[in-house]
Amino acid sequence: MIEDPLGPLDPDFAASFQRDDRRPPCQLYLISPLDVSGAFPERLARALDIAPAAAFQLRLKDIDQHSAARLAEPLQRICADRDVAFIINDSISLAKRLGADGVHLGQDDGDPREARAALGPAAQIGVTCHDSRHLAMEAGEAGADYVAFGSFYPTTTKTVQHHPEPVILSWWSAVFELPCVAIGGITPANAAPLIDAGADFIAVSGAVWNGDEVAAMKAFDALLRR
């Protein structure tokens, strides 16, 4: 857990939280598996044709930029055809090369100011803030378009050390207009508390791609429309 200079949150804060009606309803934010070769483009198209997503983040590791760009191009077209924001994980340079809609930065992947200078005023820039309100406030001050908190639940997608409580979403939504994303082990069965706590987006990966993407997308869509 990160030592947050703001101190611990009052757990009772969540009990009194009410989502501002002026805030758009929570939406789905899809994250790719690490392997997007083979039939994955067809799976992505099928998933997005079943139910909407606000964004799709391409997350690739240990691959050169030329190969990453080759894998990204068909996925970017699929997203563009369906009005889904195409976000690159970690790499400002790949996002610029592809003309992506934005980039998502970890704490060690660059500064939002650097991303803004490289990608322009229209780019969507997100920042991973783990369980820290302080990091999220710093990201907002640096020009991020959204902040991401997590991991809220156990996940096999990546190794995590930070496990915030849902109340951080309530606090953020009550204090700031900047959207927040909940991430980490989210499934149709456990997403409701995060939505109710104030998440503007729920980011999902394994819950969709580790099984039947059509059934998963239908389940998430039903939950978000309730």
Describe the protein.
There is one protein chain. The protein has 226 residues and is an alpha/beta fold. The protein is built from ten helices and eight strands. It has helices spanning 12-15, 40-50, 65-81, 92-98, 112-119, 133-141, 167-175, 192-197, 206-209, 213-225, and strands spanning 27-31, 55-58, 85-89, 102-105, 124-128, 146-150, 180-183, 201-204. α5 (112-119) links the parallel β4 and β5 (124-128). α2 packs parallel to α3 and α2 runs parallel beside α10 (213-225).
Explain briefly what this protein structure is.
By secondary structure, the chain is of the alpha/beta class. It is built from ten helices and eight strands. The longest helix has 17 residues.
**Average predicted local confidence, pLDDT:** 94
Q: Distance N terminus to C terminus?
A: 33 Å
- Helix proportion: 25-40%
Rough outline: globular
| Strands, total number | 8
* Class per helix and strand makeup: alpha/beta
Q: How would you write the strand order of the largest sheet? A: 1-2-3-4-5-6-7-8
So how many helices?
Answer: 10
Low-confidence stretches: none
Percent of residues in β-strands: 15-25%
Order of helices and strands: HEHEHEHEHEHEHEHEHH
Radius of gyration: 17 Å
Oligomer status = single chain
Largest sheet: 8 strands, parallel, barrel
Descriptors:
about 230 residues, 8 strands, about 15% strand
Secondary-structure map with pairings?
Layout: H1 12-15, E1 27-31, H2 40-50, E2 55-58, H3 65-81, E3 85-89, H4 92-98, E4 102-105, H5 112-119, E5 124-128, H6 133-141, E6 146-150, H7 167-175, E7 180-183, H8 192-197, E8 201-204, H9 206-209, H10 213-225
Helix pairs in contact: 2-3, 2-10, 4-5
